[in-house]
Each structure stands twice: as structure tokens, then as C-alpha cells.
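Translate structure to sequence.
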């Protein structure tokens, strides 16, 4: 269900994140290994609700799939949701 496309016109932010994740492949591979069960679960939920499977990658950038408790107006959880 995933399909990567070429990003010929990368902006500065895209280049930053590309360097961050591609700059340490061993660390990124270790992270993926650790969060694979969570990614698998999220992928199943996305498919069950007919949502884009690409969303499985959003928590990697937002929180590396680590849930965080929040106090007040800070973002929380793997999706980094904000209180209304």
C-alpha cells in the first residue's frame, strides 16, 4: 500500500529531514526495528478505516512512536495531538 515518489524539488526542510534520517542508517534501522510492532498495528488500523497507509510514517517524525504525557497546552501522544 505504500508508494514512494521522487521529490525532485526538495525544500530546505525536506533536505534537513533527509539528512537526519539518512545520515545515520544504523540508528534509523534500530529505531525502525524497535517501533515495527507499533507501525504494524497502526498500519492495520489505517487500512481498517480506509485511511492512507502513508500516515504510518507521521508518528516517526512527530514522536518516534513514543507516547508522551502532556500537561496543559503541550502536544501529546505518538501523533502529537493538541488539546482543543
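Result:
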Amino acid at each position: 500500500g505504500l508508494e514512494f515518489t521522487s521529490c525532485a524539488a526538495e525544500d530546505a526542510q525536506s533536505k534537513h529531514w533527509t539528512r537526519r534520517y539518512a545520515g545515520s542508517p544504523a540508528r534509523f534501522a534500530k529505531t525502525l526495528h524497535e517501533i515495527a510492532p507499533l507501525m504494524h498495528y497502526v498500519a492495520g488500523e489505517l487500512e481498517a478505516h480506509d485511511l492512507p497507509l502513508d500516515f504510518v510514517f507521521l508518528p516517526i517524525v512527530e514522536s518516534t512512536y513514543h507516547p508522551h504525557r502532556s500537561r496543559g497546552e503541550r502536544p501529546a501522544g505518538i501523533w502529537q495531538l493538541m488539546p482543543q
